[in-house]
Amino acid sequence: MAKLFTNTLAKNINWRGRNNKQKIENLTIKRVIINAVRQNSFCKDAMDEEIERFIKRWLQLAGDRDGGRKRRQEKGKESASMQEYCMDDMFTHVIE
Predict the structure, then answer these.
(1) pLDDT at 57
(2) Which is deepest, 5, 12, 88, 92, by most CB within 10 Å?
(3) Are 34 and 48 in contact (CB under 8 A)?
(4) pLDDT tens by residue, 25-82
């Protein structure tokens, strides 16, 4: 999949085209991917649904690749620290 789609493109595609993203469900590339997967002797008997689940999951995880997960975690830590600071400050004012 990474040979076909850049991560930037993958972030803008999903199976059904929801959330203003491009739809892959009915594109020829879907059939190309399925046929390519079946070229692998271990996957030659894989059902379409199994391969489609893999495609969907790969697209869903696009936001985590290229450091995306780490950036979100760091942003979450910053937000949590700010909330702690605000709560501490509020508690200090209540005591005074």
Answers:
(1) 93
(2) 5
(3) yes
(4) 999 999 999 999 999 999 999 999 999 999 999 999 998 887 766 666 676 666 656 5
| Integer Rg of the chain from CA | 21
C-alpha torsion angle, residues 57, 11, 67, 40 (rounded to 10): 40
Closest CA to 34 of 26, 60, 12: 26
CB 55 within 8 A of CB 33: yes
Q: Which residues make beta-bridge pairs with 82?
A: none
pLDDT at residue 91, as a whole number:
55
